[in-house]
Amino acid sequence: MTARSDFSAFVAPPPSGEPHAAAADAASACLDRFTAAFNASDTCGMDAELHFPHVMLSGAQRLDWAGPGQHPHDFFAKLKATGWARTQYEKKEPVLVANDKVHFVVTYTRRDAADVVLSTHVNLWIVLRIDGRWGIALRSY
C-alpha cells in the first residue's frame, strides 16, 4: 500500500474508470482462489492471494504480517483435529466497491467430511488491486 501525505487527496473520490462490477468480480475471484488454497491446506497458495503487509483484526486485537510464511506450522493439523474438512462460502457481499478496492462481508461455513456445518463465520475482508494484482489486504474476524 502506498502512503499518502495529503489527507484531502486520500479521502477524495477516486477517478472513474473500470466499471465497479468488473472490480467486484475480479476481487471475488481472488477470494475464491484463497479458499481453494485453504481447502487444499496450501499456505503458500493462500499467501499468493494476500497483500503484505497483511492485517487481521479480531475484536480489539490486531495481527500484522510483514510478509508471507506467517501461518503457524500446525495450523491445518489443529483445524483438522476439530473435524474440519473444507470451508465453503455461503455469501460474498461486496458492500463498498471502487476500481481498486472492494470490501466484502463474507459468510462462510466450516464443514466436516459428511458436509455437516461445524461453524458459521461472518467477516469483513478488504481486497485491493495493487500494481495490477488483486489481493486480500485486511481480514476482520
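the 2nd protein, sequnce then structure:
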Amino acid sequence: MADVLIIVGSESDKPRIEPAFEVLSKAGVSYEFHVSSAHRQPEQTGDLVKTARKKGFRVVIAGAGLSAALPGFAASVTDLPVIGVPFAVGPLNGLDALLATAQVPGGVPVACVGIDNAKNAALLAIRILGA
C-alpha cells in the first residue's frame, strides 16, 4: 500500500514528474505512479482517484500541462489533498497550466506548486503526511 498517488495525463509527462519520485523515495514515503488522462480516459481516471482513499493513499499529486485539467478533475472526485504540478509545455511555457491549476473554482481545493516543480510537490506531500 502506497501513501502518495502520482498521476499524469500522458507518458511524455513522466520525465517532468520524476523528481517527485526521488524526493519521496529518499524520505521513505511510498508512492504509486499512473498515466491516466482526464480528457482521454475520464472514467478510468475518475475511478483511479475515487478509490484512492480506500486503497490507502493519503495524498494525490497530479501533473498536467496546457489546460491542466487533471489536478482539478482529481480534486473534484476525492476528499484527499491534491497537489497540482503545472508543466512547462505549449506556447505559454506552462503559464496556462499554472493559472488553470491555481484558479480551480471554490469548493474544489487544489494546492499548486511552481511550473515543473515536482520536487516541491513531493516535499509538500511529505509535510501533509507528517513524514
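The mean pLDDT is 96. The longest strand covers residues 59-64.
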